[in-house]
Amino acid sequence: MAWAGFIIAILAEYIGLYTLEEPFHVKGYYAIGGAFLIVACLVLQKTIRDNEEDHMLLKSEDE
């Protein structure tokens, strides 16, 4: 479900950009902003997961 929601959100964003009645440079600005947001979300998710895994490993070594 998470991947489906992620893909639907990306498709909706870029379909909206495609149908937006603005000059090409405005569409490009929004497209780059959207791509940056997607990459930033993926990096943040991985960083949080890795930090949690490290915390769990350190906690189990202390015991």
Task: Walk me through this protein's architecture.
90% of the residues lie in helices and 0% in strands. It is built from two helices and no strands. It has helices at 2-19, 24-62. The chain starts with a helix and ends with a helix. The mean pLDDT is 90.
The averaged pLDDT comes out at 90
| Residue fraction in strands | under 5%
| Individual helix count | 2
Q: What general outline do the C-alpha atoms trace?
A: elongated
The radius of gyration computed from the alpha-carbon positions, rounded to a whole number of angstroms, is: 18 Å
Main sheet properties: none
Low-pLDDT ranges: none
The counted number of beta strands is 0
Q: Specify the structural class.
A: mainly alpha
Helix percentage range: over 70%
Question: What's the SSE pattern?
Answer: HH
Give a short synopsis of this structure.
It contains two helices and no strands. α1 packs antiparallel against α2.
Core attributes:
63 residues, mainly alpha, 2 helices
